[in-house]
Amino acid sequence: MTVDAIIESFQDFKINPTEPENTQFKPLCFNPPADLRATCSSLSETPTYLFRVASPKTSAQTSSTWVRPKSTLPHEEDIFTNLDEGNKRRRTAALLNDHLWWKEPLNDPFVSWTSSLLFALAYIYYRHWSDSDGSPLEKINLYVIDTTKFPRGTFIRDVDLLNVFIDSDPLPYSNGLARLKKWREGDLYFGEYLSQGALQIEGKCQVINAQSLFDSNRLRRIQPAFADIEVPQQRPLWAKEVLHLRQVLETRGGQRMQIQPAVLRDGMHALREIADLFENPAWRLPMAVYFAALMGDRLDENVATTPTTTATPTAGSAAALLEELRSFYRSSDIGLDCDQLKTKIIAPAAMPELIQTEKIFRLVHKDYTLRKALGELIFLVDIKDVCL
């Protein structure tokens, strides 16, 4: 057993006997009163996959077994319980504000997740480069959870909570809930979701070490616009860097830069290398789709040609992507045989990375359906020939 594995096993060991140990542990769900359920619509519309990046210096303790915020008292209750009694609404609004503004209060009951892989990857850079953390890549992990394995109400969108508590804004004229709400309604929306209390994620997640994403320059082979992780920035950006990368990913009109076939083929190879990092084969297809979406316009490029070569659909095009993804079809469990995929993607206009993800999932589903129909047709023709 490695040193890191031993450390993680101790992190998962619980001295407090009041904390649940059994596999039937139930998360602390958000249960708003009837008059707020329409406001909290995300409780019924949660993306299938959420991401989280954590290092040893992350506020909430995160491992492949548990995620625990700073406040995990045995008697903790849903933030909506008795919301209008005493000053609970005001206190909860203050806690929410402190959490969303990164103040890391000791009584913080929340844990943050994001529906944007792009945002999570940018956070790896920020954690690795910032003076407030500076953890080496081998100490930073990317966590992906399947929200369908949790009960309804485990996760709620940050904007829903902002709408609920906006009237109790502790700092209405400064860095408060109103300012966050204004930003979230514009370009500064990053698909943030919150859970509350301790969350058992064992068997419901996949964990990828950040170092493995950058080994062999994998991430930049998929999307060269990502910064070189080996060249640290003195004042690393996060939100602004995501906005920059979104501009790169968006499909735009006008002149497009031609990309050599060999470069695009190499990007496809990097995509497979990253997909193979996921231990559970069932996760490889959906995660390959998420990473493929980071290619952005590169998937739509006309392959550059020289006098000695001809354009083919083998490098970087949608056809090449499907060719790469087909090997993951058999092991996936996203409902390729169903009329609709089991994956839910919520892709607002401000998040081109998710718009592209949704497009690729539709493309995969169409490809699988057509190939299956073609295979059945060929089988029937063969049977007919045999009978004749």
From TrEMBL:
Residues 46-162 form the DUF7587 domain. This is DUF7587 domain-containing protein. It comes from Aspergillus japonicus CBS 114.51.
